[in-house]
């Protein structure tokens, strides 16, 4: 989440544009809610409060008085344009902002993954926070609506709280998941479009069936199995969109049958709470699935990367290089393999301590990564030993890269753990193949490069030596 700077947030660049965009978004959302309002009562679907909450989470500068005043004015303007009295508008707007502020208090300190609905308990977090925010909003809006529409206090509180909570669970997960740009899992990318669409088609089929059987209690949950399938098949944003569309449609259709009016207060409240609970299911599964996928990704990353330098580990380097060389062999392309050794590394540990040695390894790894091409494969295969595979390269370019790596490390600005200057040099051995053949294995190329590396060390180190190109 963004943090406040020393400059007043609303005085930062583009604050005027932010205020205008936020105000227009809230005004438009309020108008949509008002247009869906039954004659003489509260709206069936009210998206404005959830948009306000997400705006406050995304742009904390809006929590300043000027930002809140602009949002407040947007609510009031929408009410006044559509004929709501000034005092009633002020009361409803206060209730709306109170709920959004309460939701912000619960959510603004949560992790980025949770706020993108990708945590294992994200759905439960949103469920709890939106329930508390709805209750806070209802504590103000409930009595006001009871007075305005001649209800009992209990009816006013119940209608406001259940309606606000249901709206939050339908819309808030979708809005929170919008910033997520995570890609679908690789297995999903390999699936055909027909297989990808099956969960969504199942939702459509079951929803259609639910409307065909008519206004039956059980039909409310017909699409739940398909929504759970979506949660296990799609990323969280897609699942949130499908879930939102399903239940917004249900609410609009059912409201025309049942009538979301005070005369049906108990039926409406029960229906709203049922929808709120049903929404929690697919979103919880989707969040848990996303968290599991992230955990597996981290485990795979740690299994193939060196924990100290963050380059490929020996195992990861071997696997990546085998796959690369196999493809190059099939294409008949060229490749060079480098063996790199950090000269006199033991002296660094003995004279400056192992912390300095670790820092040098990290810094040298960073320098090597920055000096290589994106398609090159770099790995740490031993204590101070590294290896590189250079695909699609000429012999002249390969030797130039080897010499450049020596020069870059030789002239690098390295330091000990106590920030004292530290010199470092590399010895490099290079093996080159003009056209790879099936008989050329990674182990053979590494062996040739290692022999060249020993020659570099015997020649005084801090140099690159290569075998004759084949």
Automatic annotation (TrEMBL):
Keywords, comma-separated and alphabetical: Membrane, Nucleotidyltransferase, Transferase, Transmembrane, Transmembrane helix
InterPro entries documented for this protein: Diguanylate_Cyclase (IPR050469), GGDEF_dom (IPR000160), Nucleotide_cyclase (IPR029787), Rev_trsase/Diguanyl_cyclase (IPR043128)
Enzymatic reactions: 2 GTP = 3',3'-c-di-GMP + 2 diphosphate
Record-annotated GGDEF domain positions: 333-469
PROSITE patterns for this protein: GGDEF
Membrane-spanning residues: 18-36, 66-82, 88-107, 119-138, 158-181, 193-213, 244-263, 269-291
Nucleotidyltransferase found in the keyword field: yes
Listed EC numbers: 2.7.7.65
GO molecular function: diguanylate cyclase activity
Pfam families to which the protein is assigned, alphabetical: GGDEF
Top-rank lineage group of the source organism: Bacteria
Stated name of the protein: diguanylate cyclase
């Amino acid at each position: 989440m963004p943090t406040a700077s020393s400059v007043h947030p609303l005085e930062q660049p583009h604050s005027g544009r932010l205020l205008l965009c936020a105000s227009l978004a809230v005004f438009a959302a309020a108008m949509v809610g008002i247009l869906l309002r039954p004659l003489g009562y509260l709206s069936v679907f009210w998206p404005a409060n959830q948009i306000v909450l997400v705006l406050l989470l995304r742009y904390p500068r809006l929590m300043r008085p000027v930002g809140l005043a602009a949002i407040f004015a947007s609510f009031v303007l929408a009410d006044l344009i559509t004929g709501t009295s000034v005092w009633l508008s002020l009361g409803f707007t206060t209730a709306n902002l109170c709920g959004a502020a309460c939701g912000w208090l619960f959510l603004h300190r949560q992790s980025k993954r949770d706020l993108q609905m990708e945590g294992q308990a994200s759905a439960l977090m949103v469920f709890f926070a939106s329930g508390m925010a709805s209750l806070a909003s209802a504590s103000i809006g409930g009595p006001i609506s009871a007075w305005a529409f001649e209800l009992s206090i209990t009816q006013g509180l119940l209608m406001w709280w259940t309606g606000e909570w249901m709206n939050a669970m339908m819309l808030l997960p979708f809005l929170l998941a919008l910033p997520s740009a995570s890609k679908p899992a690789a297995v999903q990318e390999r699936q055909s479009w027909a297989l990808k669409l099956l969960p969504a088609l199942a939702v459509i089929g079951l929803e259609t069936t639910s409307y065909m059987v008519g206004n039956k209690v059980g039909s409310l949950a017909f699409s739940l199995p398909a929504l759970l399938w979506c949660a296990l098949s799609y990323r969280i944003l897609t699942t949130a969109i499908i879930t939102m569309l399903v239940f917004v449609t249900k609410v609009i259709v059912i409201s025309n049958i049942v009538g979301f009016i005070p005369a049906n207060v108990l039926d409406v409240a029960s229906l709203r709470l049922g929808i709120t609970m049903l929404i929690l299911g697919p979103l919880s599964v989707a969040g848990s699935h996303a968290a599991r996928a992230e955990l597996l990704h981290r485990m795979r990353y740690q299994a193939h990367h060196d924990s100290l330098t963050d380059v490929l580990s020996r195992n990861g380097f071997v696997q990546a290089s085998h796959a690369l060389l196999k493809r190059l062999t099939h294409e008949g392309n060229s490749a060079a393999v480098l063996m790199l050794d950090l000269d006199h590394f033991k002296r660094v540990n003995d004279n400056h301590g192992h912390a300095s040695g670790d820092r040098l390894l990290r810094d040298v790894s960073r320098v090597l990564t920055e000096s290589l091409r994106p398609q090159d494969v770099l790995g740490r295969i031993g204590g101070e030993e590294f290896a590189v595979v250079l695909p699609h390269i000429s012999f002249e370019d390969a030797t130039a890269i080897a010499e450049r790596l020596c020069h870059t490390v030789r002239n690098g600005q390295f330091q000990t753990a106590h920030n004292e200057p530290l010199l470092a040099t590399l010895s490099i051995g290079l093996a080159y193949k003009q056209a790879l053949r099936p008989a050329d294995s990674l182990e053979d190329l590494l062996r040739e490069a290692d022999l060249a590396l020993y020659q570099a060390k015997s020649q005084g180190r801090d140099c690159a030596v290569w075998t004759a190109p084949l």
